Hints:
- There is one protein chain.
- This protein has about 110 residues and is of the alpha+beta class.
- The chain has one domain (about 25-109): Uncharacterised protein PF10387, DUF2442 (NE0471 N-terminal domain-like), CATH 3.30.2020.
- Helices cover about 25% and strands about 30% of the residues.
- It contains 4 helices and 7 strands; from the N terminus they run H-E-E-E-H-H-E-E-E-H-E.
- It has helices spanning about 15-20, 55, 60-65, 85-100; strands at about 25-30, 35-40, 45-50, 70, 75-80, 85, 105-109.
- The protein is globular and about 40 Å long.
Amino acid sequence: xxxxxxxxxxxxxxxxxxxxxDVRIKEVFASKEAxxxxxxxNNGSLSFPLDQFKxxxxxxxxxxxxxxxxxxxxxxxxxxxxxxxxxxxFLIAAxxxxxxxxxxxxxxx
Length: 109
């Protein structure tokens, strides 16, 4: 028996959550001193160790402050560092922490 074909419009649960709840990145804060990357969403925020992102951990304060949000708030990038991070990836990392699969992310209300 052949496996079922996946419909092109089928989304994984994380992408569906982002779409249904209209979750968006509003801004980010990076602190080398505190070793934190805080991702501010339209409905809360997420916090991660900065050194979890090698390209960001090596960056200067000035470089960390030069980020751009994707127009739909679905990601953030640091063009000069060639670092591109997605909202979906942040949510997956935060969920892993919440269910104890991986340390590193703290969810802030």
